[in-house]
Amino acid sequence: MVNSNTSALGILFPNSYDSLVPELVSERLMASIPFAGRYRMVDFLLSSMVNCGIDNISIVVRNNYHSLMDHLGSGREWDLTRKNGGLTIFPPYSEKTVKMYNGRVEAVASILDFLKDQKEKYVILADTNIALNIDFNAMIAEHIASGADVSIAYKEEEIPAGILAIPVEKNDLYYTLSISEDGRVNRIYINPEESGPQNLSMNIYVIEREMLMEQIKGAYARGYIYFERDILAPRLDKLHVHAYKFEGYTARISDMKSYFDENMKLLDDANLDGLFSPSPIYTKIRDDNPTRYISGSSAKNVMVADGCVIEGEIENCVLFRGVKVAKGAKVKNCVLMQDTVVEEGANIEYLITDKNVTISAGKELKGTDSFPVYVAKYRIV
Amino acid sequence: MAKEMIAMLLAGGQGSRLYALTQKLAKPAVPFGGKYRIIDFPLSNCVNSGIDTVGILTQYQPMVLNEYIGNGQPWDLDRLYGGVHVLPPYQKASGSDWYKGTANAIYQNISFIERYNPQYVIILSGDQICKQDYSDFLRFHKEKGAEFSVAVMEVPWEEASRFGLMVADENDKITEFQEKPKNPKSNLASMGIYIFNWDILKKYLIEDEADPESENDFGNNIIPNLLRDGRNMYAYHFSGYWKDVGTISSLWEANMEVLDPENSGINLFDDSWKIYSRNSGMTGHKVSADAVVENSMITDGCRINGTVKHSILFAGVKVEAGAEVEDAVVMGGTVIKKGAVVKHCIIAENVVVGENAVVGAMPTETEKGVATVGSGIYIGDNAKIGPNAMVNNNVKDGDEQW
């Protein structure tokens, strides 16, 4: 390739960790959860990939993917409407029995024919539960220099409470890594419960395409489900797995509380700049007009997307596109998603409203810092 | 396959009365209303009216405009057959010509129009802020059996002599045309928007080109010739918001009217008639805990730490702590540093206003000037820019310009 030296394709798993936020994914999936005022979770990985010259990206969807398809369209906003490569969405494949995949082994096995025909040398595998701005070229370079078979990105952080609380019967496993001095992973812990900072896997992998296909074929034939649990963890002596430390800003969605907190953290300029630089994050364009503040309104410490009309008072809030706050309404410590309407004199605190929610005139509704109240899509309170 | 009607958008104007704002770009590319450029209005009107083929005639400083239009995707004008095409003057086997006048610009692109074999051609102007349904205009044109129709606005009689006026009978049939007359016989001002039957337009363009005396202008030549021949000419009444933003003060005024849609009639918050534009792709704007924002429009990417009153801020404007912005139009990427005071003015894109600098002043009885700062200008710390200043060059720290 002339315009970039990247020879990698991307594969995203948009349903991973759906079980952590059942309310938010009742009509969507992790990848299409609105985040940071005008984005969806999938935008961050897609944009990071595109900004690194990766223009062949597949999304292997499992269920509830209408909202994702609506968001992505042909991929134009991410510059992924390409003759070669571009964006490919793989819906579940129904043969005699419709089968939904559980782990990555099954997911990748369903697109082996596709992978066989691609030209890129490397594959990047990732979930969409972390918003970040990552330089994949740096990760691939380190992968090559280390001589590893597989590289895993990780971040040193405490295991979030939401992840610790995942019921075992759900299929969303998580992993921490024990790493030797030369950066090689010598042990992968599955669903550990240690406290304090851990090398928490971000479930972002770099692996050669040929090797991925070979591993998946072998594992699928044996009825294996999970890439990490069944392929990597038992064979760390034979497979050279390298740990790639990511030190940039991350926003990990692990439950409703973390969803609220991660939005609020962006009110701090340092965090916002950490997530949105150096490379731009792209998203679907809505052609909203600029936001209008009418006389008598007041705004303190807020992030507001285009298309809002503010007549009341807002403080410590993240407002998505097209939110209306009417006269006399008070909105404090809230995350209001697209087209939420707060009518006259309503008074709300610690609320997460999903798309198109209406808070009726004069209503008072308050959550708390430790337990923000969630109002589902299209609800009228 | 023929198109019923295609649009030709005259976007070649230099816009010399916008001075500092049109040094590096054509008038239709001048930013407006927080996230738009002037040309977004006619283009969005076309798409919303069902017109999917638009030729944009450019001549003066076309680079910004060309880049902005691109393949036309933001306006949904990237089409397999039709879509938007930028049409600069080009070289032919027999030599090349600049566009000599509005009519000549269309004449030189007859072959472009013929590709679509349209029944009607609508001629639009790229320097007006107006939301108009051209399909209703076409319906009128067809109902009247017209060969030529012009959109007109009623203007106050005392101002009528500043406009090109159409004198029409009770059936809206045009009987006379007066260009900026001393004694107006009508108060129907031409908006410079015309619908022609293509066969008629083509005939008169060719005839006009052959006339060495002609200025090749629609108003001065084509329309008088149509009248001379007694063609079926009608005046279509338009009563919505319309503003020619050809001067600094009218551009400033139109921006301020956007802040008051309830009274001014220019409503950008209209889901049924969206104005499309190329988006900045920035995050939502931020208002800090100590900032004050009153009666303003703020676009994505702005960071506000100071005071903003009755102003329009385009994408990515930064207002630092202690800075004051009032009655101002501040275009994309401009930074207003600590303690600076910016009032009653237009500041173009990517300007830096230094610490404690003063730009413009609130109007008084005798002084109503709108200070204007061109794009990319650096205004030094403690500099002072007077209310009538037109700033084209960097201003050093502590300097004054009036």
How many separate domains of chain A?
2
Helical stretch count of chain A?
10
CATH topology of the largest domain in chain A: Spore Coat Polysaccharide Biosynthesis Protein SpsA, Chain A
Structural class of chain A: alpha/beta
Largest sheet of chain A: 8 strands, parallel
Enumerate the spans of chain B where pLDDT stays under 50 for 5 or more consecutive residues: none
Say which CATH homologous superfamily of the largest domain in chain A is assigned: Spore Coat Polysaccharide Biosynthesis Protein SpsA, Chain A
Helicity range of chain A: 10-25%
Q: Quick one: how many beta strands of chain A?
A: 26
Which two chains touch over the largest interface?
A: A-B, 34 and 34 residues
- Per DSSP E runs of 2 or more residues, the count of β-strands of chain B stands at 32
Mean pLDDT of chain A: 93
- Overall shape of chain B: it is elongated
Which architecture of the largest domain in chain A per CATH?
Alpha-Beta Complex
| Assigned CATH class of the largest domain in chain A | Alpha Beta
Kindly report how far apart the N and C termini of chain A lie.
54 Å
* Main pleated-sheet profile of chain B: 11 strands, parallel
Overall mean pLDDT score of chain B? 93
